[in-house]
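MODEL INPUT / OUTPUT PAIR
PAIR INDEX: 1
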Amino acid sequence: MTVRKIVHVDMDAFYASVEQRDDPKLRGRPVVVAWRGNRSVVCAASYEARRFGVRSAMPAVRAERLCPDAVFVPPDFTRYRAVSQATREIFRRHTDLVEPLSLDEAYLDVTENKTGLPTATRVARSIREAIREELHLTASAGVAPNKFLAKIASDWRKPDGLFVIQPGDIDAFLPPLPVGRLPGVGKVMETKLKALGVATIGDLRALELPALEQRFGRYGRRLHDLARGIDHGEVCPDRPTQSVSAEDTFSEDVLLGDLAPTIIRMAEKTWAAAAKTPRTGRTVVLKLKTADFRILTRSHTPPSPPASCEELTRIALSLLERVGEAPQQRFRLVGVGLSNFREAGEAQTALFN
């Protein structure tokens, strides 16, 4: 059986790095890419800002408190998309098997590569050098026999790093890592595993497959495989985006009339996520969960796709008027999404059909 050679490339602090590259006055300074405002969230932070604890998806007001000297720059997704396209052109010099995850990261299957380089490590090094020389940016890369391990590896020596996990290294590398490193293991799953005495991937390995399947169903088998470094997922080129969304669960149930601030914040997160794909979302979706766990959704497809965060927000807020619940009804969750994605050119053509 052929061992696959997978590279995961992750641009370093991508949006913030593009801003620093294009404006010399920002170099060496803590840069936060975000719209200003009480309900805005951070799209990206330079490494200078990260030293103060600033992170993506953090409320902008909190970022400002953590780093009062930060320079706030509004995001320019048109420019970021152009740079992202240039990175993908570099990737495709080496392989057609490129699976973009967002504007700033992608998987590449280089089991066979176009340039005839003898190893995946050489391919990763060549890609990073081209990004540095041609785009004046840095990227980190991970090389491994599968996607799961390659993604872990790319984060291992960030920023501007390269890390390789050879097949023979897996059994020594994985067990000491916290179980939260596994895909799909968020805070809730981490708590469930902790109740079973599982804190590290090594602890997870000690659990038998039947016990994991009984406790977690089909995901139990996935956990069993990942703990052993097994991931059969293939690199899928140009996987189309179907939908993006953001939602928030309240610590205390909220009245319908008090949902607007959270809807505004979720719309901004959704717009930032949608901007990472070259496709265009046409349908705006509002999702609500009542205090008694009923799910309500309302959607609207305007004649042309939302052209700005403000337009998306306006539509999402207007959908509140169609909820049709009593004013005293309380809600435990609200979400805003974009669906019905099409290629940019296809979306324009649809206007005239």
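PAIR INDEX: 2
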Amino acid sequence: MQYFSSNQQFTTNIDNIKSNVDKLLQNIDSISLFTVLGGEPLLFKELPELMGYLSKQSKIKFIELITNATIPFGDKLLVALRSPKIRVAISDYSSNPALKSILKQQAIMKSLVNFDINHIVLKSADVWREIGGIYKRNRPTEEIRRNYLACKMPCVSLLCQDKEKDSEAIISICPIASALVKLKGAKEFEGDFVRAYSPNFKNDILRFYAQDFYKACDYCPNKWEEAKPISPAVQTKKTLELMPPESTFL
């Protein structure tokens, strides 16, 4: 997210999302876990409608909504979350002193309990790691393959159509790969993703899952090296660039 400038912002709407998910579900047997994340999903005004729609899809077995607990849950959203298929995952940012004044974690948890909504608190101090800069490293193929196999990203990313631009819904190997397609263009990463509206979707998805590396994997630091823990939710003060840190001063 920190690589997107103000003129590169991505926006979508409920109609695009529902249409894209409908098309996806037509071509697959099931989705074991559908995660809704951001940024912060509660900034999306149509979130109650989205969660209600997702919970009614029989091919979606379980849904997780991830929130940073800075925005209270309205009654309309709470009602939409009362499905046994849904769990709310709260990222616990309380270890960052700068955020304590805006966190509403206790009030949100109380409302989730009152509405009998399944939820969990993710201890962010245990999961936030320094991922390093995102830029093309020009590794040999074997090292790109090694990076992918060491990553173990648990889920793929569905990036829906942009309501302001002529764009396609795509499935990428991870959120970083999705963002790179938006930042650098689909042509740069052709083969890394599946178009949701492809007439050969089933063949494309089999090809996609059979790959043992992706072009985007060359943009991440070495995943086989242990990343150091960092304080959660620290924001960059300026938009970052897709280049080595030393290059920004040339």
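PAIR 2 NOTE: Strands lie at 34-36, 63-67, 86-92, 119-123, 157-159, 170-172, 194-195.
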